[in-house]
Prior knowledge:
CATH 2.40.50.90, 5-stranded mixed β-barrel
Amino acid sequence: MARREKVTRVVDGDTFKTASRKNPVRLANVDAPERGRPGAAAATGKLQRLIGGKMVTVKTVARDTYGRSVANVQVKGRSVNRAMRPRRSKKQ
């Protein structure tokens, strides 16, 4: 079941916290660079612009080994998971 929740903090490019959960939420099928790695700041900034402080719809699909919900997330009907996946470059 999907739940509407308010994002309180973006942790990194694929993880965020909400007001109603003890553990963070991780985006399903998204693997953003970890803090300190190339591209990490850009991914975190992009997720912050997409969902920071906003109401999102969270549909948990699994739990990871750290107790986080692994979820499909939407903001205003737009898939956050899809927006955070890297774009594939066109081959020339």
